[in-house]
Amino acid sequence: RGINDNEPSCAFSPDNGVAAMAACYQRFDPAAYLQYNYTPPRADFERKDSIVPWKLACLHRAFTEGDVSGEVLVDIGSGPTLYQVLSACEVFNKVLLTDFLEVNRQELRRWLQDEGGCNMDWTPYLQHVCKLEGRRPSAWMEKAAKLRQAIADILPVDVHSPQPLAPDALPSGGADCLVSCFCLESVSPDLPAFTRALGHIGRLLRPSGHLLLIGALGESYYFGGPGVKIPVVPLNEGQVCDSLKESGFTLIRLEVYTLPQDMRVGVDDVTGVFFAKQRITLN
Ligand code: SAM
Question: Which CATH number characterizes residue 115's domain?
């Protein structure tokens, strides 16, 4: 089966939504996912309108404005990717990566252990973020070492559980900051489940802790591998803002990117991407 096969991979009914999503993910293929989303044209560092440089610029700005700080940062639903913590590791001494799937945690461990066998070369990403930070691109090796030192653990997570991480994973006061990219909308069966998941992860934060959320707009599916069509909650900006408010967050900034036509490469039907910076108010 090709990635453009339109047959749905999962069957939904109102009561089995979360279980059906978990079943879809059993066929997730980290190497294919990286290839679809983290190579050109979506990761073209020569182009200002490419999606990955846009995401890296949003994260760089958020972590250099001075208001996001502390000791512990958790990335929720890391998948097999590291781009989302390249700016964070300059601010936080302890970074926890998390994913629902062992195959993704394994991919991250391979990079962390630096013994080869990775499905992705993160060097151009490290070089690009060094440039954003005003350093020479050749500083990328120091940055890689810094990131390896900061990553304290790679843990299982389930955002549909009221307690998404193991009870002893975090300091008793909670994490200082959370990052989460393309996770909640692509693992939730519907908008109420997306909002509940936001509430669950919000409880991991200390009072006034920050959440940096990146996600898909207008997306109803993506391919997690050849023939692995995973349903997504199609979101608009208003729904993102309402869900954040309902889950106890105060929005600081929302930025939106619209996908150029040539970035629509048949691996999903995403039309845009949002970046939202907020702090928790209710904890
Ligand atoms: N953060 C990465 C990125 O930016 O490309 C990966 C996003 S990928 C679209 C969604 C991720 O959510 C997958 O890695 C998947 O394993 C993970 N996932 C699936 N079910 C989950 C759950 N119940 N709780 C948390 N993460 C889940």
Answer: 3.40.50.150
Residue ranges around ligand 1 (CB below 6 Å): 25, 28, 77-79, 81, 84, 99-101, 104, 157-160, 181-183, 186-187
What's the pLDDT score for residue 11?
59
What count of other Cβ atoms lies within 10 Å of the Cβ of residue 110? 16
The answer to whether residue 12 sits within a structural domain is no
Evaluate whether residue 7 is within a structural domain. no
- For residue 240, give both structure tokens: 């993102």
The predicted-structure confidence for 37-66, as pLDDT tens digits, reads as follows 999 999 999 998 999 999 999 999 999 999
- In this structure, which residue's CA is closest to atom 17 in ligand 1? 77
Peptide bond into 41 cis (omega under 30): yes
For residue 1, being part of any structural domain is answered with no
ipTM above threshold 0.90: yes
What is the whole-number distance in angstroms between the Cα of residue 180 and the centre of ligand 1? 9
* Number of domains comprising the chain: 1
Q: Residue 224: which domain range?
A: 17-280
How far apart are alpha carbons 194 and 181 in whole angstroms? 13
Instruction: Tell me how far the alpha carbon of residue 25 lies from the centroid of ligand 1, in angstroms.
Output: 9
For residue 157, report the distance from its CA to the centre of ligand 1, in Å. 9
